[in-house]
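Chain A, query sequence.
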Amino acid sequence: MHVKKGDTVLVIAGNDKGKTGTVRTALPGKDHVIVEGVNLRWHHRRPTQQSPKGERLQREVSIHASNVKCVEPSGDAKGKAGKKNKKASE
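Chain A, predicted structure.
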C-alpha cells in the first residue's frame, strides 16, 4: 500500500472528494484505510439500561486506498507527494 498509519492524505474520489485527513488505520489485506473525519456513517445503538433511549453515533468507515493520495506536510521530507520524473532530475 502507498499509505500507512499517520500519513496525511487527500481524498481524490467519492462523496468526500477534496477533504484531507490523517490515516487512523490501514487495512492492507483489504486495501482499505480509515481516514480521520472522512466517510462518516450513522451507527444506531439499541437501548440499554445505561442509555434507555439508545444512541446515534457517527463512525468513520473505511475507504479504498486507491481513492486517497498522500499529501506531503509542510516541512516534512518524506517525499511521498508523488513519484519524481527521472528525466527531469537529470
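The longest helix spans residues 86-89. The chain has a mean pLDDT of 85.
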